[in-house]
Each structure stands twice: as structure tokens, then as C-alpha cells.
Amino acid sequence: MSTPGTLRGGEPFEPAGVVWSPVSGRLASVRRLVICVPPLLLALVPVVAGLLLSLAWLAALAVLPLLLAGWAWWLVGRQIRAWGYAERAEDLLVRHGVLLRSIVVVPYGRMQYVDVQAGPVDRLFGIARVQLHTASAGTDAWIPGLTAEEAARLRDRLASRGQARLAGL
Amino acid sequence: MNAGAADPSGATAPGVPDALPHEADGGWHRVHPLTPAVRSWQVVVVVLVVVAQDWGQAAARGERGPWPDGGPIPGFGVLPAVGGVGLAVLLVVVMAWLSWRVTRYRVTQDALELHHGVISRRQRRARLDRLQAVDVVQPLVARVVGLAKLSVEVAGGQDSKIELAYLTFDQAQQLRNHLLARAAGVRYDTVHAPEAPEHQMLQVPVDRLIGSLVLSGPTLLLTVTALGLAGATGWLRSPAPVAGTVPLLLGLGSLLWQRFARGFGFTAATSPDGLRLRHGLLEHRTQTVPPGRVQAVRMRQPLLWRRPDWWRVEVNVAGYGRGGDERRETESVLLPVGHREEAMAVVAFVLPDLTVAAPDDARTVVSAAMSGSGTGNGFVTCPRPARWLDPLAWRRNGFRVTEEALIIRRGWLHRQVDFVPHARTQSCGVRQGWLQRRLGVASFHLHSTPGPIVPVVPHLSTADAATLLAEQSERARRARAAAGPELWMEPYADGPAGPVADADQ
Complex ipTM, two decimals? Predict the structure, then answer.
């Protein structure tokens, strides 16, 4: 599965022979909820004002926030699709980002601890975020939007693999 | 709360508070009885300075006369004010004394334990095989009375050091030797831990230190500001501009002074238990960095240092430099300023096996890394399109892989070379912004422990970046598997000859 050099050459973000697991689609719902609700509320203001003052052109101003919300909706979808992680024999790969793309390789033996976090909205949708910590502050390996079961499974799996390959600093 | 009462220290401490040969007896010890005086001295001075400043300002404004009619604190007479200040000072002294009473430490076979804290009791236990570095620090006052503070660094989260303050200088030295010997896996039968033999490698003369400060950014800024000021005052015929830049001038002056005080009397010596650094004008510091605890090394040469060919060497050691720039500047410097040869010698000592494959030798490669450019000596540099992103340095920026480390070369005006041993690579990654994507380049990031060195190879071609990412994770894995034992002296149990053998290359 992970013979040395499978990443060799070509595209750093599409290493050959790696099967990426996507993050849960529910993350898109959470983010859309958080990002799109404020512009939608904003869109209500000119509509209501237009109705009250019976000025039709005022209601047309609602188009701007609606466009913004639509763009955010689309952007969230792209961002979520860009997230991916892959468990290999010796390390975990995490990639994300649309404009600024990033891929991180974290060896299991370097893992110091694993965090699982879920905010109130996340819990409502039953998702959690898993973050890997090494002795370096630069390791930005975190996976948002895993279903609670998947997060627990990944956490335990990473912990046990880390245990087996633990090295000093 | 309960630990202080429960532990047996109450019985042992008064008997042998500071007899010398006790490093490893496993019993509880108090720190030196003068500690409260040394500690509260600083606080008392701060209180007095604040009061004096307040009073002085009031007097200068002429709002209130000196003490007889007003008193130093508005609305109070002289006596209550003096009494209040006296009470505050007394409180500080009592707290310091209490803190001394509850502070105790012990060294067991494999751990160092410290109990301290008056209001909230703290206990900390550090495993010696996780020890990263040991410093003996002497602030000015402690130095006058012959005391020293032992600062033991174990890699941890936010604040991972154990400070034993204060011990006598000899005690601190012996404890240091013991801890390093234990951490290295050396066993001994004598009362004191054997002090590892030292071999002085280099020292930084004062004139070079001053020269390096003269040829530095702050001085340049200072000169430019001073010239600008002279011009402005001459033109405006008013001293107003001077007043405006006083904070800047003061800031620059204190920055230069701090750098001078930190680098003063810098010496580096090699010994089997690591690199020994001594430096400091007012606060004297003896650092010992064991081999194999160095996570990354950086050589730096600002533009102005190019003519004398001076270099600065910094290091990432887990736990060093946590808590701000000030500490980082103090602890993470292996060489404040030195010639090329000295810089190379220091790097060769902390990364002893910088093995390079047959056709080249390590010296040429390091030399090429320091001042070379282009693809000679096995360096992989940025592709042509990278010139749009980094028009000056794109020919120089690059990396070279050796058997044991990744060498990263960067910067055209301000040269720098990073060394990261494969065995110390935490994780790695590739990043690519949208413009980089357009140009077909990507930046490679190595993640090292927190410190001054953040190794990045910018703008490699995507193919090179992908190959490096794949191979580097593999190399790091192999190096980790083959890495030496945590107790680094155990292979040399017969005599302390080991790692020092190749120190003088």
C-alpha cells in the first residue's frame, strides 16, 4: 500500500496509489449554516423595508447579499471537497485547501497526542474535528467534519499506531 | 495541598540542608537559605523604584512639595505611606521566605522532582532520559553572593523547565554533572558525578562582538535616524524631531545593549556530555546541550557581515526559547558571531555525522551551502519560473540531501543555511498558493520543534517537491528506526571517549 516512492514525481497533492477518504458532507451543512445565514438575514432588511415603504427598487438591493450567500455556498462545497486524509502503513496524509493547497505527512511514531473536538453546532450535526499533534508547532494536521464514530475510530487507531512506533524526540 | 504535609522532607531537611555530596541520595533537599533574600531583593527594589518615581514625578511637577506637606501617595501623610510601603515590602519578604520553606527537590535514579508554591502547591517530576539541556544561570545578584540557578529543560508543552533556584555554584555544577551523567546513562561509584573533560573550541573576542553589533540592522537604523534628525533639526531650527524619536532611539539602544550583554565573553567548549556554552555580562549562563538533542541548526549571515565573513549559528532544542524572543535570543544561540571555520566547527560538533556520499566531502557541501549558488554540489534549486516570485534568490534557494540531514540553502542578500537531521524530522508537508500553482512550483515545509528555525524550501518545481516529500518521509522513518539510544553514553560505557572523537574537524 505504501511502498517507498509511491509519491515520487509529478503532483505533490495527488500521490499515486493513495486512496483519499473524504470528510463528512455534514461539515458542508454546518459551514453553510454558519456562513450563509448572516447574508440571508441581511437580504431580509431591504425586502422588509421595501414592503413597508412600498418601494420596489429597495427590495432589489436584496440581490447583493443573496449573491454573496450563493457564492459562499459554492465555495464551501469546493473547500469541503478539497479535504482528504489517508491512513498509510507508516504515516497519515492530510490535504486541504483550494487556493492555498497543502498536504502534510505525519508519521505515526511522531505523534504526541490526538485531540478530538466538537463545538455545539458540530454536535448538533454529529460531527467532530480530529487534530494531530507532534512535538512541532508547525504540524498543521487536522481533519474537520468527521462523523463522531469515524472520529473515535481514527483517534483510537492513531493512538494505537503511535504507541507501536513511538520514538523519542 | 496534601503532598507537602505527607512527604518525609520535614524530617530530613533541617538535618542536611546543603551538605555537598548529596546529589543522588534520593532524599529531599531545600534550596539555599539565601534564596528568599536574592529573590525578594529584586521585588523590593522594584517597589522602591516605583515609589521613588512617583514621588519624583510629583515633585518635578511641583504639584506637591516633598514629603513634609504632602507625602508620597496623594491623600496620605508621610507615616501611613512609609508604613504602607514597609508593609508591602515585609509581605514580599515573608512570601519569599514561605516559598523557600515549601520548596524542595530530590534527585532519584531516573527523575528530578521539585515541590514548590505557597498558595497553590505544585509538584513536578521530570524523567531524566527525556532531559534536553541543562543550564546553570547566575543573575547578577546571585553571582555576587556565589549562588546559581539550575534550569533543567525537558521537552514538554508550554512551560517544561524545572528551575532550582538558588543553589551554591558548586552544588549547581555537581547537580548538573550528575543529571547529565544520568541522562547519558553513565554509572559511577564516586561521591560526585565525574565532570566530563572539556576542550575549548572557540571564544568570541569583545572587539568582534562589538564589530558585529556595529554592522547590524539596529545600528544602521540608529545611524539613519541620527542623520535624519540632524538634518531635520538643522532645517526646522527646532529640537522637536529629537523628542519624537526618543522612544525609538531608546529602544534601539537597549536592543544593542542586550545583544552585547548576552554575547559578552562567549565561549564554546566540547565535552562528551555535549556542547558547553558560557556567556553573559551581567547574567552569566552556562549551557550544556547534549549531542542528539539538537533538532535543527541554522547558520545566518546578514548582508553587512559578508565582508568579514561572519556567521551566526542558532539551534532548535526542544524546550529552549519557550516564552518569548528574549529567552529565544538568550538560549538558542550556539555562536553569536564567528568566522566561517568556527561556524562550521560548531555545526560539525552538534551534527557529528553529516555524512555525504563519496564524490563530495562535507566541507565542500557546507561551503557551497553557505555561499554557493546554482545546482553544483548536489543542490536542487528552484526552477526558472520561480524567478517571478523570488527574483533575487531563486538561483540560490534550494536543498541538498545528505545521508543524515537535509541542508536548506536560502537568501541572496541575507544568507542562511538550515540543517535538519532526518532522525529529528517531526513531519513534513508541501504548500502551494494559487500563483505558485500557475507557475508550477510549490514550497516544501519541514516541521521541527519550536525555535528560531522554521525550515522551508520555497518554490521548488512540483515534481521536485513531490519527490522530496515522498523521500523525506521515508528517510525520516528509516533514520528514526536506526536512531541511537536515548541514553547516549551507554554505547561508550568503557570510558567517556565517544562522541568527542570527531569534534575537531
Answer: 0.86
Measured between CB atoms, which of A102, A103, A135 is closest to B318?
Answer: A135
For residue range B102-123, list pLDDT tens digits in order: 999 988 877 888 998 888 888 8
Amino acid type, B254: S
| Interchain CB contacts (distance < 8 Å): A and B | 114
Nearest CA in chain B to A14: B466
3-state secondary structure B2-17: HHHHHCCHHHHCCCCC
Instruction: Read off the pTM.
Output: 0.81
pLDDT digits (tens, 9 = 90+) for B183-203: 777 766 666 777 778 888 899
Q: How far is A165 from chain B (nearest CA, A)?
A: 9
Q: How far apart are CA B288 and CA B198, in angstroms?
A: 11
Asked if the C-beta of B459 comes within 8 angstroms of chain A's C-beta atoms, the answer is: no
Q: What are the helix (H) ranges across B299-449?
A: 325-331, 340-350, 362-371, 434-439
Q: CB distance A135–B432 less than 8 Å?
A: no
Is there a contact between A169 and B448 if contact means CB atoms under 8 Å apart?
no
* Contacts A167 to B, Cβ<8 Å: 480, 483
Cβ contacts of B296 within 8 Å, gap of 6 or more: B315, B316, B418, B419, B420, B421, B424, B448, B449, B451, B453, B455
- Look at the alpha carbons of B217, B219, B221, B227 in this order and tell me if their dihedral is positive or negative: negative
